[in-house]
Amino acid sequence: MFKKIIIVVLFINIGLTSAFSQKKSTSIDTLKIEPYDPLRPAKASFYSAVVPGLDQVYNKQYWKLPLVYGAIGTSVYLYIDNNKKYNLYRDEYKNRLEGYKSDDAFINKLTDSQMIAIQKQYSRNKDLSALFALGFYVLNIIDANVSAALSQFNVNEDLTLKPNIEILDGIDKSNLGLKCVYTF
């Protein structure tokens, strides 16, 4: 019974302290608004084109660096690996045509048509890996441009849209128009 009372008193104490722990802040918002730089997207794209991932450092999006290098690095690794295997089977096929036997027992069991099929497979995989690496590189440049452009987008709560209808004086004909004023 004594333990239950202690637990109840403890929970009440924790609940009361958390209820009174929030105080209204009367401090002034110290958010500094950076001036608009129209060349920021172009700079970020250039940095990304020169060194992939440098735009993420420029845009202060450090969490994207492993994604960029992981995607491009994996594609380049697969390209190199498929190229090595393609060259291995191509050289073994050429040696077989010249009458030489391979030291590898697995390769000796393959027929000529299987060797050609394996070469085509590794050649196709090599080409796909190169396309993926190029695609990730271009995607990195596009991401740099979009991230830099959106980083300057104003997202504070002072954005307003005020539609305004004006009647033009001094015109004999009846005109109808709509004017939208964006105030930032």
Provide structural commentary.
The structure is a single chain. The chain has a domain of 119 residues. The protein is built from six helices and two strands; from the N terminus they run H-H-H-H-H-H-E-E. The model has no long low-confidence stretch (mean pLDDT 80). The longest helix is centred in the C-terminal third of the chain and has 40 residues. The chain is flat, with a radius of gyration of 33 Å. Helix 4 packs antiparallel against helix 6. The chain has 184 residues and is mainly alpha-helical.
Could you provide a short overview of the structure?
The chain is mainly α and 184 residues long. The chain has helices spanning 2-19, 40-50, 54-58, 65-98, 105-109, 112-151, and strands at 160-164, 179-183.
